[in-house]
Recover the amino acids of this structure.
């Protein structure tokens, strides 16, 4: 494994064991729940809302500290309501509501309810499920003293929006308030993000050892999935495995391509530990590397380091984006076509939170960095051989004095797996 000996990354952000113990303070999940509720109530008020009705799985988890797994993510089958002064009310899928009453005592018993609005239209709107929910929401808002104020909604189906409007409820965008709330992480959230990154540190060691000619991209993805779930991941959202001639342009998907000697290969591991996600790229070469491949990696490293070096409270995101090349400088026609290659994005319960950093949006709409933000910075450089490319990503915590990098698998220099 190639790495520098004088400038490698270390961090003071803890990544403790996953067990609960009586001899060391780790993550306090009830403190985490109260912090998230406080942030949500503050954001609801600042956005001028009386309440939020959320269907986004990440928002539901933020408000209720409940989840029933990846199965529910695309069903729009769970939802939660939080008024500015009330307690969260959760409607969950069938028997999950009864399970929460048994195992989630931080929610009031009467606030764990069974509910459903139609399973993406599978139950026709004429049945009236959305109408029932809309009337219930209207009544709760009256009871909590926020009737007549806007109700924020994030990703509801159209029949649900129509039903709310039919009840005389003025709707607004809840996603903005929820992203405001989720932008600044607590000490517990930062530790969970660090623990999540630690899982991926270990997976990259496995990929490094397995990355040999004859193994396929999809086999490496399978190895990574198994190890992540073995280590305690609760959701492997996606793993990019991209090698050889597939590296440029970046296809954002793995294939069954056989790894060959001299390939440049990069990987992105997107998964969560207790809901908190990673987005963590690393690039390897298989056996050997050409000068063209080394040069591409060196440029990608220079670009990401220039961005990282800027990170501290008070800096604005346009200042980071300006450290990166324009789209046309690395082979793309527009910043939209190059979006996501020289890139930064907040991390938390979702893969893409605030701030979003790129030349597409940040130059004219900058966001100020604040202590407690956690985001990933990622760069991409195609090689001049016409097919190889380097991809690097680091996860950054904004601290009072500057920043900490919590992605620790070596990336200061191009790593050669199983060198000849």
């Amino acid at each position: 494994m190639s790495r520098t000996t004088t400038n490698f990354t270390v961090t003071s952000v803890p990544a403790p064991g996953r067990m609960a113990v009586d001899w060391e303070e780790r993550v306090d999940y009830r403190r985490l729940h109260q912090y998230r509720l406080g942030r949500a109530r503050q954001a609801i008020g600042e956005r001028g809302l009386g309440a939020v009705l959320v269907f986004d799985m990440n928002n539901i988890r933020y408000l209720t500290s409940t989840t029933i797994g990846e199965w529910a993510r695309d069903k729009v089958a769970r939802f939660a309501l939080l008024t500015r002064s009330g307690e969260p009310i959760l409607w969950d899928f069938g028997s999950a509501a009864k399970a929460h009453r048994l195992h989630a005592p931080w929610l009031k018993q009467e606030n764990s309810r069974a509910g459903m609005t139609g399973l993406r239209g599978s139950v026709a709107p004429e049945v009236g499920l959305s109408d029932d929910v809309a009337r219930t929401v209207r009544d709760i808002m009256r009871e909590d003293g926020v009737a007549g104020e806007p109700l924020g909604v994030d990703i509801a189906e159209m029949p649900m929006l129509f039903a709310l409007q039919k009840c005389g409820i003025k709707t607004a965008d809840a996603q903005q308030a929820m992203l405001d709330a989720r932008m600044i992480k607590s000490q517990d959230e930062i530790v969970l993000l660090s623990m999540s990154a630690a899982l991926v540190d270990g997976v990259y060691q496995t990929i490094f050892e397995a990355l040999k000619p004859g193994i396929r991209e999809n086999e490496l993805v399978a190895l990574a999935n198994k190890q992540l779930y073995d280590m305690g991941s609760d959701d492997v959202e996606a793993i990019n495995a991209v090698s050889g001639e597939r590296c440029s342009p970046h296809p954002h998907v793995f294939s069954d391509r056989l790894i060959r000697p001299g390939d440049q290969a990069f990987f992105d591991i997107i998964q969560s530990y207790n809901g908190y996600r990673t987005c963590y790229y690393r690039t390897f070469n298989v056996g050997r590397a050409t000068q063209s491949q080394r040069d591409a990696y060196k440029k990608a490293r220079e670009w990401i380091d220039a961005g990282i070096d800027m990170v501290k409270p008070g800096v604005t995101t346009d200042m980071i984006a300006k450290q990166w090349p324009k789209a046309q400088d690395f082979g793309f026609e527009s910043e939209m076509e190059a979006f996501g290659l020289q890139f930064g994005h907040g991390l938390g319960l979702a893969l893409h939170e605030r701030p979003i950093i790129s030349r597409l949006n940040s130059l004219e709409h900058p966001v100020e960095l604040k202590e407690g933000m956690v985001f990933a910075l990622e760069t991409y450089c195609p090689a001049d051989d016409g097919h190889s490319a380097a991809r690097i990503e680091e996860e950054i915590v904004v601290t009072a004095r500057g920043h900490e990098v919590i992605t620790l698998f070596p990336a200061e220099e191009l790593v050669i797996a199983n060198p000849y």
Q: What stands out?
A: The chain has ten helices and 16 strands. Residues 187-210 form the longest helix (24 residues). Residues 187-417 form a domain with the Creatine Amidinohydrolase fold (CATH 3.90.230.10).
